[in-house]
Amino acid sequence: MLLYLRLLKESFAFAINALRNNKLRTLLSLLGVTIGIFSIIAVLAAVDSLDNKISTDLRGLDKNTIYLMKFSFGPSDIPAWKRDQFPNVKYDEYLYLKGSVTNTAEVAYQIFTKTENIKYDSKIVSTVTIVPVSHELIDIQGLEFEKGRFYNESESNSGAKVVVLGNDIATNLFEDVEPIGKDVRLYGQRFRVIGVLKKKGAGLFGDSTDSAAYIPVNFVRQKFGDNNDSLSNVIIFKPEDGVDMEAYKAEISQRLRAYRGIKAGEMDNFFINVFSGFTDLIDGIIGSMKLGGWVISGFSLLVGGFGIANIMFVSVKERTHLIGIQKSLGAKNRFILFQFLFEAIILSVIGGLVGLLMVWGIAVGLTKVLDFEFVLSMGNVFLGAGLAGIIGLISGILPAISASRLDPVEAIRTGM
């Protein structure tokens, strides 16, 4: 054991000496490993950060949540021209399905509309995401409040002029003023502020709840009507725990087909989108990003491996005389083998650590500049260091074997 510890120490000294004496050559040789490790770990760190952000943004949503609408979350076999003819889901369909579909915890009705301006006194916040939705959304999405409350069933059904503000909207409008109970102007009318949501941070898929305002869906229905083509509607279902999802979807489809009078054999003119399908799509995209990162970075690692092998062959050539002397003094082949193998691994790990340091620096910088947390996990750090070590091992094995097999007499003669 002590012999191998001495060998490791000596190899490390040789590696450091090689770095000092051949700075440019070593730098160019390690550049491939550095770039390769940087590329792989940067991609993995970005994907982990993305995954973490998705989990945070979607934490309040049940994967079994269903979105019934005229659009599909994913690709569809139905031609686009045919999908364009699908009707919007209607409020009366929401009421019918709410009262007839079994095994349902909550059903909500939401309208997608364009952004608006909200005004308080002389202050205006532009392009606010307006979310007209029925009162059940609070139990489906699990919105968290900094102060106040969500509107109740009575306010929702009557289309009361009340509003729940996202954190950024409330901060920009009121600053240090207490917002609850104040009136803001929206759609040219006064809305009473009854709640302010907790700050969530930037949303992955666009604006988060911080820049949104929630109002009763029936206000928008009363203002724009139920047949406005500029609006898109959705019915959101939250099934009870343990429900057979295929049977649940089939029941929704059967009841809506019957309500719309769709005959047997005719295709559905609506889509039942399960939220888990959306998350599976995102997982697939993330997996493809990881694979793409590995493929692209693999070429850099390959170049880096050749660079390490090259510098080790040169090192063997330069130290042939020394190898001969060591062998003549009794050094065994494995001693010479491990000496060069350790040196290759150490050089490669140094390159890998530089790549990891670059990823860490960029992650810290971007986290400070952007409203997004970049995560460099210890798992990725160990993976990067391990990959660098493996590259060094593979790249150094042939030069190390060639060094260990040198004849001591020929080696001394060659070096003279």
UniProtKB/TrEMBL annotation:
Q: Where is the MacB-like periplasmic core domain?
A: 26-254
Question: Which cell locations does it reside in?
Answer: Cell membrane
What transmembrane ranges does the database entry give? 27-47, 291-314, 335-362, 374-398
Boundaries of every ABC3 transporter permease C-terminal domain copy: 295-408
Q: What is its main location?
A: membrane
The keyword Transmembrane is annotated on this UniProt entry: yes
One Gene Ontology cellular component annotation?
plasma membrane
Q: What GO molecular function terms would the record report?
A: transmembrane transporter activity
What's its membrane topology?
A: Multi-pass membrane protein
Q: Which UniProt keywords apply?
A: Cell membrane, Membrane, Transmembrane, Transmembrane helix
Similarity remark: Belongs to the ABC-4 integral membrane protein family.
Protein name (record): ABC transport system permease protein
Query: What is the originating organism of this protein?
Result: Flavobacterium glycines
Query: Which classification does the entry list for the species?
Result: Bacteria, Pseudomonadati, Bacteroidota, Flavobacteriia, Flavobacteriales
